[in-house]
Every structure is written in structure tokens, then in C-alpha cells.
Amino acid sequence: MTRLPEGSVTWVTGAGSGIGRACAIAFAIAGSRLALTGRRPDALEETAALIRKTGAPDPMLAQCDVTDADAVGLAYARIEQELGAPLVLVNSAGWNVTRRHWKDLTPQGASQVIDIDLKAMFYCTLAALPAMRRRGDGRIVHIASQAGVSLQTVSGPSYSAAKTAVVAMSANLNAEEGIHGIRSICISPGEVETPILDTRPKPPSAEERRLMLQPEDVAAAAVFCATLPLRACVTEMVLLPTDDRHMRERARAIEAMPTPPGRA
């Protein structure tokens, strides 16, 4: 595995579970010191314990609610003071509501999704950006979604809108900050076997989950993108399950079609 610079710091949000936890472990193995942010101290400690098992240095726990801009600023200040300014930021905090479709959606539910899945990424990026500009090197990984690059009705309009905006936010970040050596990497995974699946109105079965991406798959992609040479930036990556549920029915219908007569 390509390693990060010695002494570098990676800040991971949403580090208490799912993709965030997997990214924290993967970046620790890649040689970075870790700062873990999330709302639940017990979940962060569980991630920290897994990092310790790899032999990596003890991570810093910077617990906060990333939907609170002031709390994000205070958490970042603690990280910079105790570990140093992060070279890498992984914006992985995300959530969805169960009552997510137009017929059930409430203003409160829509606001909650947009706050966590979009605004929090702005807050964390704005906190980390000044030091990255001064260094002339910064790698910001945004965990978006397949719902942000194509219509996926299972996600609901608030989640889809937020993730679409994340893709646009990342593109604008590259357009303005590439001259300062900052790379914004937007990874849009398809279905990943994480706790967010349990918020669906009809959670997927165990069989369906086995065919999905795993958090470690997304983490491996994030480390790859963040460890490329400074001259190279993976601006957007769409990472899908090989047997993608959204294409499965169509593929089976094609498979069942009889071979037509005539020339090839």
C-alpha cells in the first residue's frame, strides 16, 4: 500500500461507523495520525480500539456534532493544537431519514438530511482549508453517493439533492483551490453495507447486503486517491457493486431474450 507522508494527520468525520470507520483504519495503516470526529464518544472509542490493533499510533478523539459550525471550529482547533493541521480530510459523516419520500417527508426531516449530508461537509472543509493553502498541499475526500450522479429513488429527494450538491461543491473546490495544491476527491459509491441501510422504509435483506460494496472497498479507493502524486487528482470516482441491484433486473431480462436470427 502506498503510504502517506511521515507525520501527516488525517481527520475523518463520521468515524464512529461504516465508511468513516473503515477510512479511519485504512488511513492509519497507510501511516497517518488520525483525528476521529463523530457524535457518539462510545462509537469513536470502538474505532480507536480497532486502530490500536493495527499497531498504528493512538488516534485523537475530537467528538462533536458536525452540523454545528461552531462545534466544528472548536474541534478543528483542538486537532491542530494537539496533532497538527490535517493533510487529509475525509468528509464521511452522513445519514438519511426513514420518512424520506415526498408523500411522507417533513421540513424537519429534509433539513436534517441536508444539514448532515451537505452543510457539515462545508463546515469541515472551511475549517481545514486555510492551513492546507498555507502548506500548498491538501487532500479532501468527500463521500458522496451514486444518488448524486444518477436518479436513485430509493434514497429520497433530500439525500439525492444533498449528494448532488456535494459533487458540485467538490468540483468548485478543485476549480478554485487546485492552484494551491489542494485536491478535492469526490467518491460516489453505490449501495454499501453500512448502518444507514437500516433507515430505509424497507431495509434490504441479508442476501442483498452480501452483494453490496463493503466499507473497506470505499476506504481502499479513498486511500488510493489521496496518495497519488501531487500533480494528479481523481476529481470524481463512481464505485459500484459488480452485480449492481439497479441494473440486475434489466440484465436478467436481456439474458432471457432469445438470440435473434440473421447476421451477427
List the helices and strands and how they pair.
Elements: E1 9-13, H1 18-29, E2 33-37, H2 41-53, E3 60-61, H3 69-82, E4 88-91, H4 107-135, E5 138-143, H5 157-177, E6 182-189, H6 206-210, H7 215-226, E7 236-239, H8 245-256
Parallel strand pairs: 1-2, 1-4, 2-3, 4-5, 5-6, 6-7
Helix pairs in contact: 1-2, 1-7, 3-4, 4-5
Characterize the structure shown.
Helix 4 (107-135) runs parallel beside helix 5. The relative contact order is 0.14. It contains eight helices and seven strands. The protein has a seven-stranded parallel beta sheet with strand order 3-2-1-4-5-6-7, with helices on both faces. The mean pLDDT is 95. It is globular and about 70 Å long. The chain has helices spanning 18-29, 41-53, 69-82, 107-135, 157-177, 206-210, 215-226, 245-256, and strands at residues 9-13, 33-37, 60-61, 88-91, 138-143, 182-189, 236-239. It has a single domain (9-256), classed as Rossmann fold. It is α/β, with parallel strands linked by helices. It is 45% helix and 13% strand.
Q: What Rg is obtained from the alpha carbons, in whole angstroms? A: 19 Å
Distance between the termini: 45 Å
H/E series: EHEHEHEHEHEHHEH
Helical fraction equals 40-55%
Largest beta-sheet characterization: 7 strands, parallel
| Overall SS class | alpha/beta
So how many helices? Answer: 8
- CATH architecture descriptor: 3-Layer(aba) Sandwich
- The CATH homologous superfamily name equals NAD(P)-binding Rossmann-like Domain
CATH class: Alpha Beta
Q: How many extended strands? A: 7
Low-confidence stretches: none
Estimate the strand proportion.
5-15%
Large-scale geometry? globular
- Rounded mean pLDDT is 95
CATH topology: Rossmann fold
Instruction: Please list the strands of the largest sheet in the order they lie side by side.
Output: 3-2-1-4-5-6-7
Total domains: 1
